[in-house]
């Protein structure tokens, strides 16, 4: 994956006049940050959330570099924190046109080895709370600020559909997230709100670093992809731009794979020729 400084995000006016919320930026390699850069390059006004002072030190300089209108603390596991965050968002923006949800967590000791042996009740519920329910909660809150319709996107991975070594609890959580996306899309569709998920290929992020054998996921994803290349941030961000802009009208309830074709391969070419 290209370094953040070398990303080529096309500029334009597709998002001019649109206001949106970005949840889940952790550092300059975050998928949420790549998406935010692309949306800003097309004229969007952005608000960012962060969790705690440690992440604020990383998020604030990034957000300020794209002229963020608001940078607010939000703990998706705490209703009072979310109440306060959305009160600030409404006070600053009044209404929203789009939301980018890129929030997920599972304890590191469960992202290795046996799913059956390593999964505990408390950690499973924590992963579901942060990775799945948070999108439901954000959708409920954000929809109230979308009187004219809008778009919501969340981030998923192929581990929701296929059994990926070591992905374990996060794979189950992502499956729940994809199902939640469809149910949210059904509920909010009559309000003109589109809801979709982007299933990105493995990318060099903090989330990947927390998975045992994460580097191997990068190389195997590249070798087994149809295009024999890494998933690009520009590709993922471009998909988000399509879904968040008016180009995405009539598209809802979808899980869209942006992974250089990795998701549809049955076996690697070398295996087929052996």
What does this structure look like?
This protein has 274 residues and is α/β, with parallel strands linked by helices. The protein has a single domain (9-273), classed as NAD(P)-binding Rossmann-like Domain (Rossmann fold). Helices cover 44% and strands 14% of the residues. The chain has ten helices and seven strands. It has helices at 31-41, 52-65, 79-93, 115-118, 121-143, 168-188, 206-209, 214-224, 233-244, 269-273; strands at residues 19-23, 45-50, 70-73, 98-101, 150-156, 193-200, 255-258. A seven-stranded parallel beta sheet has the order 3-2-1-4-5-6-7, sandwiched between helices. Strand 5 (150-156), helix 6 and strand 6 (193-200) form a beta-alpha-beta unit. Helix 1 packs across helix 9 (233-244) and helix 5 (121-143) runs parallel beside helix 6 (168-188). The longest helix is centred in the middle third of the chain and has 23 residues, at 121-143. It starts with 18 loop residues before the first strand and ends with a helix. 46% of the residues are buried.
């Amino acid at each position: 994956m290209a370094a953040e400084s070398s990303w080529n995000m096309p500029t334009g006016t597709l998002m001019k006049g649109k206001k949106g919320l970005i949840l889940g930026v952790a550092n300059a390699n975050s998928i949420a940050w790549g998406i935010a850069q692309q949306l800003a390059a097309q004229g969007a006004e952005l608000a960012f959330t962060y969790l705690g002072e440690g992440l604020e030190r990383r998020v604030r300089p990034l957000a300020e570099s794209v002229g963020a209108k608001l940078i607010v603390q939000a703990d998706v596991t705490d209703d009072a924190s979310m109440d306060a965050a959305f009160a600030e968002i409404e006070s600053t923006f009044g209404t929203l046109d789009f939301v980018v949800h890129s929030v997920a967590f599972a304890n590191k000791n469960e992202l290795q080895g046996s799913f059956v042996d390593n999964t505990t009740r408390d950690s499973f519920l924590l992963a579901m709370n942060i990775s799945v329910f948070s999108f439901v909660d954000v959708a409920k809150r954000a929809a109230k600020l979308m009187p004219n319709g809008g778009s919501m996107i969340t981030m998923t991975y192929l581990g929701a559909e296929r059994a990926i070594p070591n992905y374990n609890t996060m794979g189950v959580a992502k499956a729940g997230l994809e199902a939640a996306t469809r149910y949210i899309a059904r509920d909010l569709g009559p309000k003109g709100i589109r809801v979709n998920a982007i299933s990105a290929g493995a990318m060099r992020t903090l989330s990947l670093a927390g998975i045992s054998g994460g580097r191997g996921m990068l190389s195997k994803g590249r070798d087994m992809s149809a295009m024999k290349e890494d998933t690009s941030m520009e590709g993922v961000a471009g998909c988000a731009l399509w879904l968040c802009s008016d180009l995405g009208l009539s598209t809802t309830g979808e899980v869209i794979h942006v992974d250089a074709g990795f998701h549809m391969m049955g076996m690697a070419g070398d295996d087929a020729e052996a």
